[in-house]
Automatic annotation (TrEMBL):
Domain Nudix hydrolase, residue spans: 25-180
Record's keyword terms, sorted: Hydrolase, Magnesium, Manganese, Metal-binding
Protein's name according to its UniProt entry: Nudix hydrolase domain-containing protein
The keyword Ubl conjugation appears for this protein: no
High-level lineage: Eukaryota, Metazoa, Chordata, Craniata, Vertebrata
Pfam family name, one: NUDIX
Residue numbers spanned by region Disordered: 123-147, 162-181
SUPFAM superfamilies: Nudix (SSF55811)
Cofactor section: Mn(2+); Mg(2+)
Designated gene of the protein: NUDT8
């Protein structure tokens, strides 16, 4: 059974709450869009992030972020930008009907608007993600799990992590890998 936040009722409630913002913001010009991917990993609700390589030049090296990037002129709107970037970065194709809505824009360090697009990607096996090694950002997938204070690189996420990761008594599960290296 899915956790309440990922249930059909949770989705309906969320879509209703975001309906107005989605209608207002979908076609509004923005510098960039990101996908806020809700998922479950072995039955545990999680958020999927990207971990930028620490070997990159520039201001985003080593950053943990949602998948996304700059809007291209060919993108129909911010939803298409977020979905395209997620597919390019993580090899994860999210159908548009999985989008729950659009959140209020945030601003990056340069004050450019970035539009978060909320979507459920459903149950996820981190081992099936195929990050695009040709991407200039050289990203790796990372997960945030309930009860954790950091991020897990999905290539370092052992089975025991999800069983023990929710229990702070297991100190070895709290040694989070933060570097894309």
């Amino acid at each position: 059974m899915l956790p309440d936040c990922l249930s059909a009722e949770g989705e309906r409630r969320c879509r209703r709450l975001l309906e107005g913002a989605t209608a207002r913001l979908r076609a509004r010009p923005a510098a960039a869009a990101v996908l806020v991917p809700l998922c479950s990993v072995r039955g545990v609700p999680a958020l999927l992030y990207t971990l930028r390589s620490s070997r990159l030049a520039g201001r985003h090296k080593g950053d943990v972020s949602f998948p996304g990037g700059k809007c291209d002129p060919a993108d129909q709107d911010v939803v298409h930008t977020a979905l395209r970037e997620t597919r390019e970065e993580l090899g994860l194709a999210v159908p548009e009907e999985r989008v729950w809505g659009i959140l209020q824009p945030v601003h990056d360090r340069g004050k450019a608007p970035v539009v978060p697009v909320l979507a459920s990607v459903g149950p996820l096996d981190p081992q099936n993600l195929r990050p695009n090694r040709e991407e200039p950002h050289q990203v790796r997938p990372a997960l945030s799990l309930p009860g954790e204070t950091g991020f897990w690189r999905t290539d370092t996420l052992p089975d025991v992590t999800l069983r023990r990761g929710l229990n702070p008594a297991h100190s070895e599960s709290r040694a989070l890998s933060r570097h894309a290296g």
